[in-house]
Amino acid sequence: MSILDQNIEKARNYMQPLVEAGVLNHIDGQTVPAHSGALMDTISPVDGTKLADVAKSDAADIDAAVAAAKAAFRGWSQTPGAERRNILIKVAEAIEARAEEIAFTECMDTGQALRFMSKAAIRGAANFRFFADQAPGAEDGEVSRTPTQMNTTSRRPVGPVGVITPWNTPFMLSTWKIAPALAAGCTVVHKPAEFSPMTAKLLVEIAESAGLPPGVLNVVNGLGETAGKRLTEHPDIKAIAFVGESRTGSMIMKQGAETLKRVHFELGGKNPVIIFDDADIDRAVDAAVFMIYSLNGERCTSSSRLLVQSSIYDEVCARVADAAKRIKVGHPLDPDTVVGPLIHPVHEEKVLSYFVKAKDQGATIAAGGEKVGDQGNFVAPTLFTNATNDMSIAQEEIFGPVLTAISFDTEDDALAMANDTQYGLAAYLWTNDLNRAIRMTDQLQAGMMWVNSENIRHLPSPFGGVKASGIGRDGGDWSFDFYMETVNVSFPRAEHRIPKLGG
Ligand code: NAD
């Protein structure tokens, strides 16, 4: 038996309970079907076959989950931070113990390659550990004194919150939101993406088996426009943490306006990797290739625009094209696979449409630009060259293993092009000129910039975008600021004069 066949067999065994029972909702510690009994399919990106039934929930299911989260809020928010910490550390340990099951299930549900997904569960556990450690001090504030008053600030959890996540790396992204919310003392209703719902059910089961009380984390599956919409409109949900497309973020803002919902958005990107001719070209090429072709390019921080100084443009493009052509496209559970199938035929159609647009707009397809095989959603790692920044392949988020290369002459050109997009999530800069790096990073419109580096996540640092890429920051204390309200209580330090009116 080949390693791939062994892995497929293992995945089948791991997924068996979810396949048999269906990916149902999880409300108040119970596995429950949708109120209406409706189901939808989650399908395999490898061959389009059905993986499992999924509860297709509507407003009634969200209402039930919110009621559970509301009822659990008092107990969980008043659980001492140190105790919440201990429970969340146990959740991290339980995730680690089931890391392979999570990774294999996620590969089958999303099409992401095992070589990257094998770390996703471990990163999810790391998120729980990191935020758990901050739970004991989360409510701490400051004391500031004037001659007459002593002001004390503290934070308290905002209430039950909604978490809405996308399909690209669902487990890791969910933990990124859910772990700080729980550490802060909030209770959660999670609405996972309809294309990849399986590991969200694993997470809630793992968390409860590790000691998380029922009702503290609830999962409701369903479509965005029904279940998701109701969550964003529910008056008892005090905040929505959303990761997904920019236009969905804008819909959520409208939907939440009536109840003055607090929102945190992590949205799309069209992130430039800018390579100057004084850079370490070997490292820059490796990083650019990694940041667009890992995770199927279905990654918000992917380096999807390659801006290269004209003197080295041909050389860099030739090297990237060569690497793209040698990347193995295959089954997500094959340990050699780098690029697996895209999540869904609908998304594949979107990605393929840009191959046509690229040709129509006059760009050159230097690598890929075609579907691979006739089954599943496989597309070849693609490089467009001779592109200009006004083309849709340079402006729109394709969210696949597709890179658009554009040349520039001067620093000003590079900066203007990098900033000429609606997005502003991440930027990658390659230069050995320190002064240039400072000038560029001072003016690049991006929430996160990496200089001479690929995307290395550091949990205490802020993560998030500017412009249409997001509102708010994750990581460090920024996460707690979102899930908590800051309140101030003022005490007199001396008897001060109170104006007497009407006397
Ligand atoms: P999407 O916006 O289509 O869906 C995301 C989630 O929103 C899903 O759960 C969906 O059901 C729900 N939803 C859809 N309409 C809704 C509505 N009206 N009300 C409430 N919920 C609704 O995004 P996607 O296609 O699943 O994911 C890909 C996108 O996510 C890309 O744009 C990518 O850049 C972005 N993303 C951003 C980050 C980041 O950190 N900035 C990380 C990962 C992905």
UniProtKB/TrEMBL annotation:
GO terms for molecular function: 5-carboxymethyl-2-hydroxymuconic-semialdehyde dehydrogenase activity. Pfam families: Aldedh. Its EC number is 1.2.1.60. The keyword GTP-binding does not apply. InterPro entries: Ald_DH/histidinol_DH, Ald_DH_C, Ald_DH_CS_GLU, Ald_DH_N, Aldehyde_DH_dom, DH_HpaE. The keyword GTP-binding does not apply. GO terms for biological process: 4-hydroxyphenylacetate catabolic process. Residues 35-488 form the Aldehyde dehydrogenase domain. Residues 137-157 are annotated as: Disordered. It is an enzyme of class 1 (oxidoreductase). This is 5-carboxymethyl-2-hydroxymuconic-semialdehyde dehydrogenase. The lineage of its organism: Bacteria, Pseudomonadati, Pseudomonadota, Alphaproteobacteria, Rhodobacterales.
